[in-house]
Amino acid sequence: MLAYIIRRILYAIPIAFGVSVVCFSLVYLAPGDPLQTILPADATAETIEIVKKEYGFDKPIPVQFALWVTRVVQGDFGVSISSRRPVIDEVMGSLSNTLVLTGFAIPFAFMIGFTMGAIAGCYPGRAIDRFVTGVAVMGVSLPNYWLGIVLVIVFAVEWMVLPATGMGPSGSASFSIFRLDDLRYLVLPVITLSMIPIGILSRTTRAAVAEIRGQDFIITLRAKGLSEFAIIRHVVKNAMPGVLAVMGLQFGYLMGGSILIETVFTWPGSGFLLSKSIINRDIPVLQGSILLLAMVFVATNLLVDLLQSAIDPRIRRA
Amino acid sequence: MDHPTLTHADDADPRDRGGTAQPLLIARDLRKHFQVKGGPATLFGAGRAAVRAVDGVSFTLFKGETLGIVGESGCGKSTLARLLLHLIVPDAGELIFDGDTVAAPDGITVRALRQQVQMVFQDSYSSLNPRMPVQDSVAFGPYVQGRSQAEARDIARDILVKVGLNPALFGPRYPHELSGGQKQRVNIARALAINPRMVILDEAVSALDKSIEAQVLNLLRQLKRSFNLTYVFISHDLNVVQYISDRVLVMYLGHVVELGPVDAIFDRPLHPYTTALLGSRPSMDPAHRIDEPPLTGDPPSPINPPSGCRFRTRCLHAEPICAATVPVLGAWLDRESHVAACHIQTPGSGHSQAAAQGSA
Amino acid sequence: MSLTSAAASNWEADALPATKVRSYWQSVGYRLRHDPVTLVFGAIVLAIILTAVFAPWIAPMDPYKDSVIGRLKPFGWRGHILGTDELGRDMLSRLIHGGRISLMMGLVPVLVATIVGGTLGIIAGFGGRAVNTAIMRTMDVFYAFPSVLLAVAISGAMGGGIANGMIALSLVFTPAICRVAETATAQVRNLDFIEAARASGAGTFTIIRHHVLGNVLGPVFIYSSSLVSVSILLASGLSFLGLGVKPPEPDWGLMLSTLRQSIYVNPLICAVPGIAIFITSICFNLVSDGIRAAMDVRM
Q: How far apart are CA A238 and CA A236, in angstroms?
């Protein structure tokens, strides 16, 4: 068991390294002189010289990479071109806002997706199964940001019961989940964000439940006289680990992929920050957000794998 | 119409180099070790664990004979089969095919070897490409050896007839549409399509029902006569080996333990392992029931075989000399000799039952 | 020849009843022909593609012609079947023309990723440990990014535009396809008939061409076809963020983005481009499901 944990963590290290290489090279993908992409247009010649020396733009690329990694590890992600604030502050601040969204969306998606999938799995081939499968297919075929727009049209424009954009009436700084007024701003983004996870989770649950129900040990339980309700408990217990794992992965995915929804709802999360940085050509923020979000994703995957191996002994042997 | 290049019993094979006196194949001291997971490969696993699948196997194969190779699972016979075709490259030892050393600069290339030696695989579900019609699988060999697609297909159809399958009916079929016996006949056809002189049959009838097995064995005998083939027949089934072989080689844990004519081996086995194997065959006669198994326990692991004679841990006649020295096989170059790698058979070895030094 | 007749007459009993033998591809075609759902949606997909290809001849009006007075007009206003957008241009024509770019940005990356990823996967599956590790671990690094993030990162850093967007999406899909190809190749590689092919004297390329490709292309194709709908969604997402074409070119994602400001004026119009994306994506999804059902048969 310990061997597996160590192996898995060790495996994550070259991945993290590769991810940082990719992020590092983003600056070089941008057209134009890398020096100019990270400095604001009105930087003085002095500043340019200082940055050039510090970042080592006159040195070979591997050296620049080493310098970059040293800075990043200390928390220095550079300075935002548009806001002049340190990138790390901007990104961490926005990350917590995204966490609020994801923190609500994932449990919501799990509850709905798991229930739908479990019911469908218990009656494979019947109408309810087809319905759930249809909803799941729609969930992954709809452009989720479009659904957001449609929801805004219906609830904010036409019926005017929910706010269209923003994080709370007084902005993100004073947002609190304990205030009903602020919570209203959560409703539409959370529903929209959970659309894809609902689709994926219900499909996964349905497959897991259907597969487990067909297994011999369930037939044995039934032959022993267990009530259908008790059998469902057994099935759910066996299906849980796999589905929870998928849920964990979805969490990581949402943290990294919330950019579209946050743009639609002007939710000041990390995705929105990323979107702004693209419009403003603010490469330091772009690079910093990507790096952090990717690392969150890698860390989440690692955690999910480790937790899953703790619960499911079959994984450990692989 | 007969196929133009398949030879028949009466014609002399133009590829024959040394006549009947020269053995078709000499295997000398073949060795193959597989590294156990992890670590860079070192030749003899110095310190690193290795599965010693084939550990010094020597034998001769004479033209026109059938050599049966028997042994339990894990004795290395399948690895040996693949070594003979260089599908697995030996770590040490040499193969001499009709006088030419295989893969040596002045000898015969592996590619040329594979034009004269072919293999029939066990009928696992994967021995034929599931996405290819059977006649394409058979035609693939000749095609690769240089024939045009049309020629190859003609050869394939011709060969299918010779193994007893109607090519018009069976040619376009897919493997999953054939029975086990039919698939095995396709496997045989595939091997023969290239017109080899020697065929290695690796558990070729093991997966078949008994009645089908009998049919396929008879087919093999007919084909051998018609095409002047030499067989190496690998099996764990002693009765089958007895039926089809001229000489028999017994393997245990990577070593050859006994070699000789089939009647000699089955009537007068020399090695304790052979005796035990033969004794473990159930008899049809109720008067000859076996109360105790002659062979107990599992074979030791090929990663860490016992020192000296590898059979000593299960042998009733084991003595200290058996742990100290590896027994030698003896004269294996000769057609009639019946030899065993056992200290009891070696005069002067130090075993209490061995003859004294110098006696016959 | 005596052997021929003897052998043939011995096994008369083996003759199977005369059934029609179908090849694999014929059976795939048969199953598809009898699958009404897939056929219907396949026809819709075909219609969408053809509409996009022949856009200049099908679109009723000029997609670039704007009008100051005719902005955000409802359905049917002065011959504009689907109304007008925020600059007074005909929605229907812009939708039809937009389909060209949206479809292209959706289909081309999948095609490129299939070729590149498939080749890499087969090489990784057939090459030695070193080659396999090098290729697959590199793919793992790209796999470590959520797809949206990677697509945005690459195309954002490169400055947007259709070409960069397609490059970014190709990079997003290549690792997944590479994995599918590598798994399929690794499975096939150890099967007995590959060994038999080697025993026949075939070289590696011949074996790949005749024996491996047929068994690998199937899973790869099935997987790639399921990626098309995802690609269309991602591509339109990129355009929505401004990373696709630049205005005034019509593109469904871009149209959604520019129309968003006008939802208080004419909400219905603003939802229309999204419907196009949705219909296209779901049709491709259902068709690919049907293809998978037809092709993925246990033999």
A: 5
pLDDT band with cut points at 50, 70 and 90 for residue B200: very high
- Kindly report the backbone phi and psi dihedral angles of residue B62, in degrees, each rounded to the nearest multiple of 5, phi listed first: -95, 155
Read off the pLDDT band of A172 (50, 70, 90).
low
CATH assignment of the domain containing C128: 1.10.3720.10
| C-alpha separations of A249 from A9, A237, A245, A305, B275 in Å | 17, 19, 6, 9, 61
pLDDT digits (tens, 9 = 90+) for C229-269: 999 999 999 999 988 888 888 889 998 888 888 888 878 88
- With CA atoms as reference, the chain C residue closest to B85 would be C199
pLDDT at B11: 57
In a domain, C15, yes or no: no
Q: Which of A149, A257, A263 sits opposite C146 (nearest CB)?
A: A257
Q: Report yes or no: A288 and A247 within 8 Å, Cβ to Cβ.
A: no
d(CA C134, CA A78): 32
ipTM of this predicted structure: 0.85
Does residue B207 lie in a domain region?
A: yes
Q: Do A141 and C270 touch (CB under 8 A)?
A: no
Higher pLDDT, B159 or A77: B159
CA distances from C207 to A294, B53, C135, C200, C210 (A): 40, 27, 21, 10, 5
Judge whether B283 lies within some domain.
yes
Structural domain count of chain B: 1
The verdict on residue B93 lying in a domain is: yes
Mean pLDDT of chain B: 84
Say yes or no: B115 contacts chain C, CB-CB below 8 A: yes
Average pLDDT over residues C215-227: 89
Identify which of A19, A22, A143 has the shortest CB distance to residue C233: A143
Closest CA to A283 of A3, A29, A17: A29
| A182 contacts A172 by C-beta, under 8 angstroms | no
Give domain status of residue C267, yes or no. yes
Does residue C138 sit at the B interface (CB-CB below 8 Å)? no
Is residue B17 in some structural domain? no
Lowest mean pLDDT among A167-181, B38-52, B311-325, C212-226: B38-52
User: Is the pLDDT confidence value at A221 over 60?
Assistant: yes
Chain A meets chain B (3+ C-beta pairs below 8 A): no
**Whether C21 contacts chain B with CB within 8 A:** yes
Chain C residues close to A145, C-beta within 8 Å: 237, 240, 256
| Selection from B19, B45, B46 nearest residue B32 by Cα | B45
Burial class (CB in 10 A: 0-12, 13-18, 19+), A3: exposed
Contact between C50 and C43 under an 8 Å Cβ cutoff? The reply is no
Q: What are the residues facing B202 on neighbouring strands?
A: B234
Chain C positions touching B187 (Cβ under 8 A) are 196
Are B207 and B175 in contact by the 8 Å Cβ rule? The answer is: no
The per-residue pLDDT for range C88-135, each reduced to its tens digit, is: 888 888 889 888 998 999 899 999 999 999 999 999 988 888 899 899
Look up the domain containing B64 and give its range: 25-39+47-124+133-345
Angstroms from A248 CA to nearest CA on chain C: 13
pLDDT tops 70 at residue C151:
yes
Domain containing C280 equals 48-65+76-295
What's the pTM? 0.80
Q: Which band of pLDDT confidence, cut at 50, 70 and 90, is reported for residue A176?
A: confident
Query: Structurally, how many domains does chain C consist of?
Result: 1
Does residue C84 fall inside a structural domain? yes
Q: What are phi and psi of B97, to 5 degrees?
A: -105, 115
Would you say B216 and B205 are in contact if contact means Cβ atoms under 8 Å apart? yes
**CATH number of the domain where residue B56 is located:** 3.40.50.300
Q: Is position C183 within any domain?
A: yes
- Judge: B131–C200 Cβ closer than 8 Å, yes or no: no
